[in-house]
Amino acid sequence: SDVYKRQGINAEYMGYMDKEKAKQAAAIAKDAFAKKDYATAIQKYSEAISFDSTDHLFFSNRSACYASLEQYQDALDDAKKCVEIKPDFVRGYGRKGLAEFYLKKYEDAIGTYTQGLKLDPANEQFKEGLEKAKNALQPPPQSPFGSQQEILQKLLSDPVTKEYFKDPDFIQKLKLCQTNPQMLFQLMNSDPRFMKVFQVMSGISMEDLQNAAKEAKESKHQHEHGPGCEHEHGHEHGHEHGEPMHDEPSKPKDEPMSSPEEQKAPKAEDEETMKKRKAEEEKIKGNEAYKAKKFEEAQKFYDNAIALIPKEPIYHLNKASVYLEQKMFEDVLKECDEAIKIALELMPRPLEKIAKAYARKGNCYVQMNKLPEALEMYDKSLLEMNDHSVREAKKKVELMKKNMEEQQYFNPEKAEEHREAGNKLFRDGNYAAAIKEYDEALRRNPKSAVLYFNRALSLMKMLDHTRSLADMQKCLDLDPTYVKAYAKRGNIYHFLKEYHKALAEYDKGLKLEPGNEECLEGKQKTQQAVYQSPPDEERAKKAMDDPEIRAILSDPRIQQVLKEVKENPTAAVGAMSDPFIAQALQKLIAAGILGVKQKTFQPV
Predict the structure, then answer these.
(1) Long-range CB contacts (< 8 A, 24+ apart) of 42-48?
(2) Cα separations (Å) of 393 from 20, 319, 365, 366, 387?
(3) β-pair partners for 594
(4) What is the DSSP string of 419-448?
(5) Closest Cα to residue 19, out of 65, 55, 73?
(6) What count of Cα atoms within 13 Å lies in the side-chain half-sphere of residue 80?
(7) Rounded mean pLDDT for each run of 10 residues along the chain, 604 residues in total
C-alpha cells in the first residue's frame, strides 16, 4: 500500500470496487431483514451492490426483501440477475419462480421451477411451486350451487346451518368444500351436518334424496327381473353428484309428518333463488344502461333489483355510481351509507363491498372538493381491504390537498416581509431565528430562488451543510443562472474536502459568468488543496460513495490506464492527451482516489 502511495495511487481502489464495504452493508441488511425491516434491508443491499455488483447473494437477498413487500416485479428483476451471475445457484430459481407465480406468469414459473429441479431434483419447495403454477393455469372448479358468497348467504340465512358456524371444525371443512366441491359428498358420509348443508344449498330435502334412492333401486330391480316400467325413468332420479346414500338410515314409520311450513321450505328456497336471478338480470341491464350513459334508465333497473333483493349492498353502490356521474353528490353519499349499513348486518361481513362503499364516498368528496373528508373515507376503505387503486387515489388527494393549502397560503407580499426580517436577524448573527423567518417566507412563496439561497447561507453559518446544499440546489432548480449558489456550493464542498465536487460547482458558475471572483478564487484555492494535500485515506473512501466516481472506475478505458499507471506511473502523462481520460483522471485526483507525484500529473 505504501509503495502505491509513493507512486501516486491508492492501492485499495485498484480493484475498482470495495468488497469490504459491500460486506459491511450486507451485514446491516441481513440484520434488518431478520427484524422484518425490509425497506432498510433493500437500501443496504442496494448499497452493497453498488460496491460489488458481482456477488449473486446480494441480488438473491434483495429479491427476498422485495417479495416480502409484495413488490414482485423488482423481486423478479433481482432474481434474474442472481441466476445470470451464478446459473448454478439453486435458491435463485426459487426466488425467480416465486416472483413469476405472484405476477401471474405461470408458464414462466413452470419453466423456472423445472430448471431448478434439474439442479436439485429432490427440492420439495420447487416441486410444490411447480404444482401450484400448473394448477393456476387450470380453470378453478365451479360449484353447481352458485358463487361462494351466495352459498354463505344461504347457509347463514338458515336457522340450523347458521349454528354450525360456531364450530371452527365445521368452518375448516366448509373451506375445503369451497376449494374442492367434490369434498362435500365425501363429508356427507362422515359428518351429518353436511347433509343439511347440501339440502340448504341445493333446495333438495332428505326425503327427496331417499325417495330418489328408493326409485333408483326399484328401477334397477325391475330392469333385472322383468318388464313393467320404463327403464329410462329410473335414471332421471339417480344421484348425479355422487354415490347414493346407502348408509343413510331409513325414515322411521312412526316419525311425525312434516308440517305445512316445512313442506313449503324447498319451494320458498326456489322462490328466493328466482328473485336473486331476476335481480341479477336487472343489475346487468342497469350496467349496460350505465355504460351507454342512460343514467335514468340505469337507476330504474337498479331500483328493480333492490325491490327484489333489498339486502344486497352492490345494487346501492351501483346507484351511487350513477348519481356520481350525474353530480348528485348527496344522493351518492346516501346510497353508499345504505350499502354500508346493509353490509354490516351480513355475516360474514362482505369486506370488499364495505371497502368499495367507503372508497366511493371518497371519490364523491373529491369531486365536492372536500379533500379532508375524502382522505378519511379512503383510510376507512383501506382498513377494510388493502386495495392498490385506493392507495393511489389517496396519494393523489394528499398531493392535491398539499397544493391547495400552499396556494391558499401563497402571499408574495407577506413573504417579502419575512425575508426582510430574516435578513436583519442574519446581519445580527442570529442565524437560527433568521432560518425561522425564511421558513415562513418560503411557505408564503415557495417559488423564490432568493429565499432558498438566503436560508442556505444561514444554514451554512450553523454548519448544517447537508441542508444548506439541498437549499442551494432548490435555488438553482428555480433559477439555473444563480451564479452565487454555485459559488457557495463549491465553498461547502471545499470545506468538506470533496474537492472534485467543489471544482465541478465552480466550473458551472464560471461557465455562466467567466469573471466571477468568488468562483475563480474558490477554484484556485481548491486546486492548490488537491495538489498540496497529503494522501488522505478517509477522503478517498468518502469519494467512493459518489456514483460518478464509481462509474469512472468501472469504465474499461480508465481501468486499462490505471493498470498501466500501476506498473509505470509516468504512463499517465501520455494518457492525458486523450480529453476523456484527462478529465476522468483529474476527477480521480481531485477526489483523492489517485495521489499526485511531482512532474507526474500536472494541474488542469
Answers:
(1) 42/66, 42/69, 47/22, 48/21, 48/22, 48/23
(2) 43, 21, 12, 10, 10
(3) 9
(4) HHHHHHHHHTT-HHHHHHHHHHHHHH-TT-
(5) 55
(6) 10
(7) 33 55 90 88 90 91 92 93 93 93 92 92 88 78 60 82 83 75 72 81 62 54 43 35 34 40 48 85 91 92 92 93 94 94 86 92 94 93 87 91 83 93 94 94 92 95 91 95 95 90 93 94 90 71 77 81 73 71 78 59 34
Distance of CA 232 to the CA centre of its chain: 59
pLDDT score recorded for residue 569:
66
- The Cα-based distances of 134 to 96, 138, 337, 378, 480 in angstroms read 16, 7, 43, 37, 57
The pLDDT score that the predictor gives to residue 595 is: 66
This prediction has a pTM of: 0.41
User: CA 102 → CA 75, 133, 352, 385, distances in Å?
Assistant: 10, 10, 21, 19
The burial of 199, by beta-carbon neighbours within 10 Å (0-12 exposed, 13-18 middle, 19 or more buried), is given as buried
* Inter-residue long-range contacts of 22-31, CB under 8 Å, 24+ positions, other chains counted: 22/47, 22/48, 22/49, 22/51, 22/52, 22/55, 22/58, 23/48, 25/51, 26/55, 26/57, 26/58, 26/61, 29/61, 29/62, 29/65, 30/61
Residue 159, judged by CB atoms within 10 A of its CB (0-12, 13-18, 19+), counts as exposed
Burial class of residue 236 in the structure, from the number of CB atoms within 10 Å of its CB (0-12 exposed, 13-18 middle, 19+ buried): exposed
Name residues whose C-beta falls within 8 Å of residue 504's C-beta, 6 or more positions apart in sequence. Answer: none
pLDDT at 349: 80
Residue with cell 416465486: 98
- Contact (CB, 8 A) for 13 and 544: yes
Q: What is the pLDDT of residue 162?
A: 84
At 543, list the grid cell. 469519494
* Crossing angle for the helix pair 579-591 and 517-532, to the nearest 10 degrees: 80
* Rounded CA separation 448/415 (Å): 9
| Contact (CB, 8 A) for 552 and 558 | yes
Q: How high is the pLDDT of residue 51?
A: 86
Where do we find the cell 333408483? 216
CA dist 70 and 318 (Å) reads 31
CA distance 299 to 598: 88
The pLDDT value recorded for residue 217 is 54
Query: Vertex 599, ends 596 and 604: CA angle to 5°?
Result: 70
CB contact at 8 A, 545 and 593: no
> What is the pLDDT, as a whole number, of residue 265?
46
DSSP letter string over 180-201?
Answer: -TTHHHHHHHH-THHHHHHHHH
pLDDT at 208: 55
Q: How far is CA 514 from CA 378, 477, 521, 586, in A?
A: 55, 21, 12, 21
Pair 496, 465: CB distance under 8 Å: yes
Helices (DSSP H) in 165-293: which residue ranges? Answer: 168-179, 183-190, 193-202, 206-225, 231-236, 260-291
